[in-house]
User: Fold this.
Amino acid sequence: MILVTGGAGFIGSNFVLDCIATEKSPIVNLDKLTYAGNAGNLASLKGDARHIFVKGDICDRALLARLLHEHRPSAIVHFAAESHVDRSIHGPADFVQTNVIGTFSVLEEARSYWSSLAQPEKGRFRFLHVSTDEVYGSLGPDEPAFSETTPYAPNSPYAASKAASDHLVRAYHHTYGLPALTTNCSNNYGPLQFPEKLIPLIIINAVQRKSLPVYGDGLNVRDWLYVGDHCAAVRLVLHRGRAGENYNIGGGAEKTNLEVVNAICTILDEIRPNALITHHSSLITHIKDRPGHDRRYAMNAKKMADELGWKPGERFETGLRKTVQWYLDHLDWVENVTSGAYRKWLDINYGHR
Ligand code: NAD
Ligand code: DAU
Assistant:
């Protein structure tokens, strides 16, 4: 039994679906169902006794204590977070609450539960904290990729809140011996990603012939990883990673935002041509930059390769094509998540730019 937090979000739901399909291990899934969480992502598990969904907040310590006591998991995989940089700029308070206080709550209850275990369960228990490359700050064009020893230099309220949570996890291992591991991953893309993030937002806007908003000059670089590869890496770290260690996970696919947006447009020109426009790329619009926008991220995933034999399975070109096709095939899912609240967000983030 694994306790997963945030398992109705983008990466969490992909992880839960993969885990149940490949490992058959039962999962208790604790998720608050914020705007980013969608129980519909897990619809295919309806009636499956291996998946127990609990709607609740990771800041609710009594609930966490009850779930740990009742289900006696052998691991916690902690995905729950506020995850969108732009939202952290408009409203950082939720990020401090969920990412810092929430992680602290999960750690405290995990420590209490783990301390009460007898061997061999105590020795086998693992706490896996899912974090991001953004904690390392921004790279210059010729600087080497982030490694596990790169000093932390978070630049957005989101990155700062994730960095704080990483430090708490490290301290709980160092001080109390909690068998904790942290993974820091680069930008994910794939099915079920909420369309506030670049790739799904561009796909959906392009299909609807809306403008494709590119911040600033569009030359910021991200290192893209297909979500299924991230989930496989997390499972590997959970089973074979060394407690107390950090593992960097990356796609080895550095792209400028303009390259990504143009690649989506080219795929759509081919598989969903629109009679009213010659090229989807004609919809690209450069808009005012994100404040404090990190220029470049890149991950050195050598430790994952050397210690655990992990490497990404999906190439960016094929992964992106699959992702575009997934959104075209799931316009009902898109319709469902882009409700009134989503439109309000578009107005807050893009209205004044
Ligand atoms: P997401 O925003 O899609 O999903 C977050 C999930 O957490 C949602 O289901 C939401 O309902 C839930 N949640 C939020 N606050 C909660 C709370 N207080 N209590 C319980 N549940 C709560 O995020 P994602 O993109 O799937 O990211 C998952 C994790 O991976 C995050 O910790 C994020 O920092 C990290 N990460 C994301 C990426 C990426 O590219 N998306 C890359 C590296 C790391
Ligand atoms: O690097 C890992 C991180 O990747 C995760 O920790 C975050 O949870 C995740 O949101 C993501 O952060 P980014 O800020 O890199 O992702 P986003 O999709 O918001 O933006 C990707 C790039 O595209 C970034 O340089 C900003 C730019 N962008 C984004 C949006 C939404 C645009 O140019 N236009 C847009 O409309």
